[in-house]
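Data deposition worksheet. Section B asks for the primary sequence of the deposited chain exactly as it was used as input, without tags or linkers unless they were present during the calculation. Section C holds the resulting structure in token form. Section D is free text for depositor observations; keep each observation to a single sentence. Incomplete worksheets are returned to the depositor.
Section A, Depositor: J.P.
Section B:
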Amino acid sequence: MELRKELERDFHNKTRLVADDTHVADTRWTEELETTISTNPLWANMKYYAVERKSRIRVLEWFKNNCQGKKVLDLCCGNGDDSIFLAKNGAKKVIGLDISDVSVENCRISAKRNNVTEVATFVLGDAENTEFPDNSFDVIAERRPASRRPHQGPARDGQDPQARGKVHLHRGVGA
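Section C:
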């Protein structure tokens, strides 16, 4: 594994593995998360997500309107909040992929807790080399992964063979 990917994995493992913090698997700012934000320096930027709320609402509406009955790949799924949402809102199948083994385990626990294990599955993997065959998914969604620089922008049709001719939703502020 390339050094930049090892660093990315290690960072996400570190931010998401805090045994005595029940909110470490949360990925959206809430009042309940404030203790985590104030005591865990790796979560200091979580208030950003309060600002991100408007674009987040648009993304969730898009998921509801466009992913029912679809097979969705959630790249860089983090703790799986979007995968769980998609599974609960009519996606036929959701596969969440993340480079962090801690994140994947958090996703599996969350899927079980939310009763969506028949629809949502989670795999450890590399978003730049998923090993899925071309045309495996109807929709590919991703958050801006740490390894992708903001100036690179979203993947475009033709750049991602799994999404060729399909919808690729790049989730970020202003998405």
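Section D:
The first helix runs from residue 3 to 16.
The radius of gyration is 16 Å.
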